[in-house]
Design a protein that fits this description.
Largest sheet of chain B: 2 strands, antiparallel
Number of helices of chain A: 1
Radius of gyration of chain B: 17 Å
Number of strands of chain B: 2
Oligomer: heterodimer
Largest sheet of chain A: none
Shape of chain A: elongated
Number of strands of chain A: 0
Number of helices of chain B: 7
Number of domains of chain B: 1
Helix content of chain B: 55-70%
Strand content of chain A: under 5%
Distance between the termini of chain A: 41 Å
Order of helices and strands of chain A: H
């Protein structure tokens, strides 16, 4: 349960929240 | 270890700021993500140590002879990084591959000498693992340190990238608090055998 909950929280919920912050975004081909 | 892997990924995000957090988090658990279907299929398995309840924190010998073998982990990590090469470029792909392999490195001090070198455990080579799980308080403390350190580093980096924008600063605080809270929740549930 802790594994599944952790993946859902960190990859899904927090990953989604974090994507709304103005981080630079890596792109293939960019130097 | 579950929460500690997430903590390391959060710490890496503070430095590899252009690599998406969700991909770093997934990378940190990649070996276990592959392990789960193999566990269900009976290819890999958990053997509770004597006297331990099934699911108890650190209370199992983990026969993950493919996903958690040294060579298997290297191959799976390289494959994971390669999945992101076309989208995020070489640097992020390498970072994601290294974070995926960090799972094996962080598991090494905790496991009870159940991590083989070759997939399948063949070759008569010794299995690896320093057995810190035999002292649950010590392994839990190690995980707690990684979780808190990762959350603090991530929180600082998120606050810095938010700049002077009040709404972004609030969002960064929410993200930082969420990383810390989710890490502590995951660790607590794991310690409770859930």
């Amino acid at each position: 349960m802790s594994f599944i909950l952790g993946v859902v929280l960190f990859v899904g919920v927090i990953g989604w929240l974090d994507a709304k912050l103005p981080w630079p975004i890596a792109r293939a081909g960019r130097r | 270890m579950i929460a500690g892997h997430f903590g390391l990924a959060a710490a890496v995000k503070a430095k590899a700021t252009d690599t998406p957090l969700w991909a770093l988090m997934l990378a940190s658990q990649w070996l276990d993500v592959v392990f789960v279907p193999l566990l269900v299929a009976g290819v890999e398995r958990l053997e509770p140590v004597q006297g331990a309840k099934p699911g108890a924190y650190g209370g199992a010998i983990i026969h993950a002879d493919y996903t958690h073998s040294l060579v298997g982990a290297l191959v799976l990590s390289a494959l994971f990084g390669a999945l992101f090469l076309g989208r995020y470029g070489r640097r992020s792909a390498v970072v994601l591959g290294l974070v995926a392999f960090s799972h094996w490195l962080l598991d090494l001090p905790l496991h009870r000498a159940d991590m083989p070198i070759l997939p399948g455990g063949g070759g008569g080579l010794p299995k690896l693992g320093f057995g810190l799980w035999e002292v649950p308080a010590a392994s839990a403390a190690l995980e707690l340190v990684v979780v808190v350190a990762g959350a603090v580093l991530y929180w600082r980096a998120a606050s810095a990238v938010a700049g002077g924008d009040a709404a972004m600063k609030t969002r960064a605080r929410i993200c930082g608090a969420a990383v810390l809270a989710a890490g502590l929740l995951t660790l607590t549930l794991n310690l409770l055998g859930m």
